[in-house]
Amino acid sequence: MKKITSLPFYFSTTYPPYVVLSPEQVALRNKLNDMTDRGDIAYEHVPCLCGKTSFAIIGAYDRYRIKQQTVICTLCGLIQSMPRMTQKAYSWFYSSDFYRKLYDHNTPARVEDITGYYQDRYSKKRYEYIASHIKAPIINILEIGCAGGWNLYPFFKKGARVLGFDLGPDLVAKGRSLGMDLNVGTIDDVPAQEKFDLIILAHVLEHLANPKEILQKLASHLKPQGALYIEVPNIERYKKFLGDIQLQNAHLYYYSPTTLLPYVKEAGLEPRPFTVDILGPNIGGLFYTTKAVPARATDMSHEYTRMVSLIRKNEWRYRIKHIFLKLHILKLLASIRNAIKRT
Questions:
Q1: Domain assignment of residue 171, yes or no
Q2: Parallel, antiparallel, or unpaired for β 67-73 and 79-81?
Q3: Rounded distance, CA 33 to CA 24, Å?
Q4: Whole domain around residue 268: which residue ranges?
Q5: What CATH number should be reported for the domain holding residue 121?
Q6: Going by C-beta distance under 8 Å and a sequence separation of 6 or more, which residues neighbour residue 220?
């Protein structure tokens, strides 16, 4: 496979992670990389969601410097991890200390903090978004990837019946201690006969190996007027596009509006509405089942060219920035800006 960029934060073994890691995080990352080198973790090559197997390489490391190759499909432009852990390996990873302690190092340590940081900054806004678009009573709610129940808690406080599944037993236990019906498990553990007014899938779809199948299964659990709330990171919108913030080994796919919508529609779901920059640099919205025959994925051949162009523009911005840093121009500009603010 050809490389379409050579920036150090994609390939350098010595490039620093995007945040300062604690000694515990560094030890976990190094152990995970050692396990990968020894072949203790199973990886697989699979076709893109569009069915093709032609990729170009973007990078070899993620934002924490975990060894994970990121590629882009040369047909549809969908960015993804490849090779990636097998489903069995990912199930182990998400239920292990590696995932929570590496990625969620700010997870509240106390049960009562469920109503604090996460509730105020994220879950509350999701609740407000959903409530502003769904006028019918929301009585039964399901969330897949519920963690400690951050997103379910505002509905729970309003008297709704909530059901959640996650692979993290410690976080599930925190939510259960508040009275919510949270369980260790996946979509496969949802009772077949259960139907819901609302299903939440927030920052989960990018972690799923078989997103179309999961979306179809979730759609089968919706009541006739039920809604599926989907929220994923927008690969185009992050402050450091494709840089040291987004890339992570836990993400199997990196969606843009162009690469997300066709596959959601193919699963028999229609957006009402679809929102770019939903809760910051994310995309998503509310999706409803449709009686129309699910459409095949639309032609996305232009998306590869467009995404490569964005990646290379980002590379030039990076190189120019570092030239300025070497010449101390950025510090000079910052000093001038601060002097102007003081006047």
A1: yes
A2: antiparallel
A3: 14
A4: 111-289
A5: 3.40.50.150
A6: none
